[in-house]
Predict the structure.
Amino acid sequence: MLEVRWHGRAQQGVVTAAKVLGETCLRTGKYVQAFPEFGPERMGAPVKAYNRVSDEPIRMHCSVTNPGFVLIADPTLIGIALAGGMESSGGVTEGATEDAVFIVNTPKSPAEMRTALELDGKPAKVFTVDASQISIDKIGRHIPNTPMLGALAKATGMITLEDLMDDFKVNYSKKYSEAVINGNLEAMKSGYEGISEG
Amino acid sequence: MTDKNNEELPEGGVIHEGGNADSYETGGWRKLRPVLDNEKCTNCLICWVMCPDSAIIVEDGKMVGFDMEHCKGCGICDTECPPKIKAIKMVSEEEAD
Amino acid sequence: MATEKSNEMQGLTGNSAVALAMKQINPDVCPAYPITPSTAIIETFSSYVADGEVDTELITVESEHSAMSASIGAAAAGARVMTATSSQGLALMWEMLYIASGLRLPIVLTNVNRALAAPINIHCDHSDSMGARDSGWVQLYSETVQESYDNVFMAVRIAEKVRLPVMVCLDGFITSHAIENMATISDANVQDFVGEYTPETSLLKDMENPISIGAMTLPDYYMTFKKQQSEAMAEAKDVVEEVSAEFAQKFGREYGLLDSYELEDADVAIVIFNSATGTTKVAVDELRKEGFKVGVLRIRLFRPLPHAEIAAALKGLKAVACLDRADSFNDFGGPLFNEVRSSIYDLEDRPKVISRIYGLGGRDYKVEDAKSVFEELLKVVETGTVEEMTKYITI
Ligand code: SF4
Ligand code: SF4
């Protein structure tokens, strides 16, 4: 079973990102969970969202404490305590498995981020993608969630870019205009292509 | 006589028969009884409007008396009969008998 | 009708699954006053109403007390009525809950479990529905999104058969806001399963024969009506079984009054309900691999209490822990503990029973928490003594 934790600030779309990831995995025949951790719902407040993905039905209903995948939609969350009403008040690396994959939204290099995450010399993998810039270029708004999903597809192979884009088209074409859908699909693609590993 | 422990009572205490207040005789609750003075009554029917027990009997638009099976003797008819007319007087049941 | 056993999986949250179920049932009336975490049920359902996808009369009221009052009025007139609430909302309905059941009105209410203030808290525990456990409502508890959806359909059938209101409970946020795989049922099959509502008296269909509802009864009649209500509650147990069996036959998903997991040869077990059951099952699997004979009993139907079935399921065990996500504040364990313990009293060789209160106000209950309770139970078996009868855990 794969366990994913998303970090962001309210309005950056990490809850939606977890939802899209869950839906995409579900469409490929997996069992999934996608759930947010609701703390204070204020714009800018740190939020977390989670995914579980498995070939078997998922029975546990506790929060994800040892994620193998950590997606950080806002680099300013690194190095700060994320207290906010819920129990785990540690930072973005708290509980992550030894060989966890970290994907950080930043224009900086993976090496810089590895240091910032205090993961130098550790087996964890660190990727970066400038999801904010991509979202501004492609969608015209600072919502880094879809480029992060593209980056996740590239970095992990948990999902394919095609499945991701397909799912988004199917599930959201009712909700959003064609321009918004296309912008997000472009953003996914750019996120997929724009990821750096280090 | 209804068996009060009968389990066939309607569920939830629903009463399936409309207008059944008529079969409950409240006349026995009376201490005072209204008595009409036909000479004074102008048939304005204010008493008929005000009586809480629908106990004023009206025939052909005329106040003709009281339904003693339902009149509870509250005296509202007496109070409401216009002051210049005062066609109703409340008398005690013993006195009336 | 065609059976429908292998549906394509969808990803829905508990709230959207319940809203979808309500849409497919298409009730006559839905009086509602949304509250976190059940808000999305009414929000989503109201969009179905606005889009003309249902014929339901949605009544937006000014409080939950009014929501239940309007539900009672509509149900008394012969309408099929559904609503949803949580926490303080259910607490505010309290007075009217008893009137709904006393008048024998088959209202279906989804309660998304949330802690009661004070201190104020929006997260999951069961103090809201546990507080309503003696209000004369049938209570069904749901482990997953799938079961929450399925229970709503069964609730309609159960309510209308025994003429008692039914409360479907699911965990706030944990189930209400989590997307999980679930299979939906086609609209036609839902309609076929729930059928048309044909109450014995319906002002909606028969205005010529008025009825009186809510008349006062004095000591001569009151108790007779309460006895009828109590008997209807006893009958509800069989009806839950029948309706669940028919549901399983038609849609392939089986639900009992209880759900026994690895109990056959178990020495110790946890009794629990709602979403934490799955987490406990994971702990069972892990401990079984290490050779420990542990199991889980999930209570799906809490009102009426399937006491004989609970006793039968726990017979032969050595120690049992009842996990309550609510406190009775009686200095003697949670409600589940007291009722389960009482249910097994007449067993010849009954297991020792302990109370553990967990997860209040959304406190996470993890696989390790379940494991540590099992360890305590195994110790009780080993030493033959209970050190702490009641205790708060996950703290
Ligand atoms: S005394 Fe009261 S009940 Fe009797 S007729 Fe007058 S108003 Fe009606
Ligand atoms: S109110 Fe007086 S005057 Fe008028 S109808 Fe009655 S008894 Fe007659």
Notes: The radius of gyration of chain A is 15 Å. Residues 84 and 197 of chain A are 31 Å apart (CA to CA). The pocket of iron/sulfur cluster (ligand 2) is lined by residues B 36, 41-47, 63, 81, 85, 87-88 (CB under 6 Å).
